[in-house]
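Lay summary. Proteins are chains of building blocks that fold into shapes, and those shapes determine what they do. In this project we predict the shape from the chain. Here is one chain we studied, written as its sequence of building blocks.
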Amino acid sequence: MQTITKKSIKKSWAGAIAEPAKEFPLTQLSIISGKIPDGLRGTLYRNGPARLERGGDVCDGLRQRVGHWFDGDGAILGVHFTDAGVTGVYRYVQTAEYQAETQADRFLYGVYGMHPPGSIWKRWGQKVKNTANTSVLALPDKLLALWEATNPYALDLQTLETKGLDDLGALDNRLPYSAHYKRDSQTGEIFNFGISIGSSIQLNLYKSDRTGKIIQKTAFKLNRYSIMHDFVLTQRYLVFFMPPMRMKMLSLLLGVTTFSESLLWEPQLGTQVLIFDRENLSLVSRGETDPWFNWHFGNGYEDKDGSVVLDMVRYGDFHQTNEYLREFASGETYTVPRGKLSQVRLNPRTGKVTAIEEVVNRICEFPVVQRSQVGQPWRYTYISLMPQRADIGKEWFSAIARFDYKTETLTEADLGENRYASEPIHAQDAQNPEQGWVLTVVYDGNCHSSEVWVFDSDRLDEEPVCKLGLPSVIPHSFHGTWNPA
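And here is the predicted shape, written in a compact code that computers can read:
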């Protein structure tokens, strides 16, 4: 962690994270402009780090700031679209660690980019904080707040009241459940994974039924630790890419380095390709390709010749993007994250990558597709975009866009000066299956407020069909989902 002192904010996006977010109860949302579509019925959920500091007043120099954006405490936004109107609710996930730190009014635990307080001798074996800050999984009877390293927390779907840790019927404290599940809309099956570090490093694979209960799991031993944040589901496979990384395990265990500082980028190792059968979770093939790093995939499927086709936001290395995300938590960035949307084709029987093509030559992130098309052939990938009109090394995403693989065109919605988008979420219209909507939470740095903007998915470059006001500022978040009514 770092102690911060009062300083001026350089960029308006930083206003959204300048202070801890304020919760609000279930509240009727006002319509700023436009009209709520008649067929938009369901709930938008979003999760992200909402508290990046604790401690004394900023003027006395004692306030503590997190060491990395990943370290912030998670809070969930729920926006319910009903026949009676739209309501919103925003609440912190009441993890045991969040409650303990709130009572103490200081940081007590280590996370991804920060040590626990105290001397190095006290760090050995200390508990890691469950930040519950990365994504959400909406199940029939609960909402799960997800992160990387341990069990998820369950919340009430309507009020977002925290119910407690959830083991999905098969997890123990040693088995992490990742933030990036994949749900097959045709079968209802939910797939996920987690990487555990113990006597060996294991990739744990999970298959759940539509209620979230784990019905099958297996573990695959890895030869080294690497960040695998996401994966691809196709009609027959689970596809993972393991970037060329290692961990300084001894220095991490001794508390000399944080988790983030312990990660080494070693491009000579190449990127490993791991492909598993989705029916029995067994390894199908293992290959190797050029070194790269990626956080997120858009989608994947198998074409007629059996090849797997997928897209992702691809980086040249890990440290570049990790450093940008570390800087982000301070409100000032200097590193340029050069992730570009790329399409990859591979042979699943051999694990060999046969083609890589950059399809969007713009800095972007958070690729998503329509929920019903996960693991199936798809045409559109939605992304968040860096602005072309500003110093991208010091900016945040202020546009969303749709890339059309059929016409190879990019349709962009630029939100305007000092307005910043969250990951674009596609929502299918309940009355017309041919109609779709794209929802994003917007921070307006011009007036220090947050709104929900609804776009027609076929007219992203036109004005939003509806803008809704939120009662308080929502900090920039990671991931969300649309849960149809």
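What the prediction tells us: The helical segments are 96-104, 249-253, 318-328.
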